[in-house]
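Morning. Coffee machine broken again, so started the prediction first thing and wrote up yesterday's gels while waiting. Chain of 335 residues, entered below exactly as on the submission form.
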Amino acid sequence: MEEITLIALTVFSTLVFPGLLTLWIASMLSEWWVRKLFARTQRRMGPSYVGPLGILQPFADFLKLLLAKTEPNYRHGSVKLARIFGCVGIGAITASLLLLPISPLRIAFNFDVILLIYFLGVWVAISELLMSTSLTNPFTIKGVSRFSSMLVVAEPAFFTATIVPVYLVSLTTKGEPVFSVSTTAEFAWSLWTNPLTAIPMILATIAALVSIQSKLMFPPFNIPEAEQELIAGVVTEFSGPLLALFNFLHDADLYVLSLIVAVVFLGGPYPFSDNLVLGALATTAKYLVILTIITILKSSFGRFRVEQGVSTIVKYGLIPALVALALSIIIGGLA
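Came back before lunch.
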């Protein structure tokens, strides 16, 4: 009976909540929020036609690409390979959700943060890069090379920043398991109340937000898809279902990265973990704050050149993350 329950819980967590179905819905809603807010900053309407306030527009766009649009016959490259890498990326994101405290099937063990880094920092990035290079085009290759240049700095910056609250929680609490995402989420909110730990937390949060901008190719880091120079860069060859898959992977990455900041840096449902409704509202509020900040940053800058983008990630992403980690280590030595 216990085995059947575990299997059912695994299937539910993987396919329904917080897995594939919830991932798709949350990703589409996140896209709507970003598009709507981004449009408002430019005095445009944004999504407005499908659903109340256009909230169903991303769903309609996705289904149109998936069901109504067709893919051309590519002379070079492999559509099947691109689809495989896209599915691998979606699978990695889905697996990473099981490490968060919102999952009914809680995967938690010592140093499970390494698994989170492996899923999001390795497989999602590899999937995006190989998905694009599966369809050869000079503009695509140029876009991928630019994207790779930023990822080399952005990925270490984001996950160095992520390690900061994980490490600080391991110092200041005796929660189990250690160096775990779930333990960090439980105690991260208390780090902001301590002046010593609040400083590295501020630096790490700034580094994480800057890194997310570049990982998602949002302005000012939309260098790999500069329409005036590269047509559409990494997505030049994508259309129909393949473009729908790539857009889903991109939106899912936005959703999960923002959710990680809300949970690991800001504590997710805590301090209302004992109340399901208040906990869910607290997590949603924190998530929307992060998503709003990302959108405001997106609307506030023009596109950088490649060297400017990499330099900015180093200056406002990697260096603050390293400084935050160094301060955390010093705090650990004083403890």
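The chain is about 70% helix and 0% strand. Going to sketch it on the whiteboard this afternoon.
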